[in-house]
Amino acid sequence: MAKYKLEYIWLDGYKPVQNLRGKTQIKEFASFPKLEELPLWGFDGSSTQQAPGGSSDCVLKPVAVYPDSTRKNGVLVMCEVYNADGTPHISNSRATILDDADTWFGFEQEYFLYQDGRPLGFPEGGYPAPQGPYYCGAGYKNVGDIARQIVEEHLDLCLEAGINHEGINAEVASGQWEFQIFGKGSKKAADDVWMARYLLVRLCEKYGIDVEFHCKPIRGVYNTPLDWNGSGMHSNFSTKFMREVGGKEYFEKLMAAFAKNMSEHVAVYGPDNHFRLTGLHETQSIDKFTWGIADRGSSIRVPHAFVKNGYKGYLEDRRPNSAANPYDVASRILKTIAEVPAK
User: Which pick of 16, 172, 251, 283 has the fewest CB atoms within 10 Å?
Assistant: First the structure.
């Protein structure tokens, strides 16, 4: 038997953006624990805006498990939050979302790295050179030094944890980066996104760096727009029908359903999206729905390969922002897809 360090991780009750929380318990196992071997565990919900002080007990239910390479016998445990009576807590969106293992999701998580209250590469009291050389950039003047260390180490941590991490790149604004996560099914894909976020935030502690997931952190006085990109969590999706059958007629009906449900999508695509979805900086305006072939200024980008393949493959919804909850995003996409008969 060996003692394992189990880091139970959950989403708190803060609004409009939930925070990641985590605490460790030590348990003995003969080998790396399986999900079904992990016990329920309680926590003080009054300290996470999930319960009143007079009845503060909440329950953590393990739902996914990952190895933690930063610790000897380390285990990362993604959890859902339940009430003491066994019902899902109101903050627990994972328990009630639509899921379909044959629907594949690819989330492109953008974020800024901040130090001393400003993005990396931003001088004190001013701005760096305009956007242009930073995207997929190389060299100290474009990406600095600390950022590259962080994103490379984060990539390794995710791969060692078994997260289906698919790549990294420097993004359009100075101090802005992206990682990509792929998963089959809403819950699996979103679990991996949240765990990757957790690993990034925890990693940055030792560098004295904060991770800024707000979709438009760089704004002027009175929130005036500045010429700096916001951050998205572009959501690529495909059902089995889209991959194997598809067709132009089905695609057009699907886009009509997305247009009809525009407001419902925007409502769960992350807070403050009106700052980001302006029609500028590779976005469509928040009050419009459009699709376009290879058009990053549309609500949904249609890859050239999708059209060339007989309208089969995947599509990219560019509206979800960097602080969106991937459970809610994936579920909303599935709800709209379900409105269009696959035949």
Answer: 16
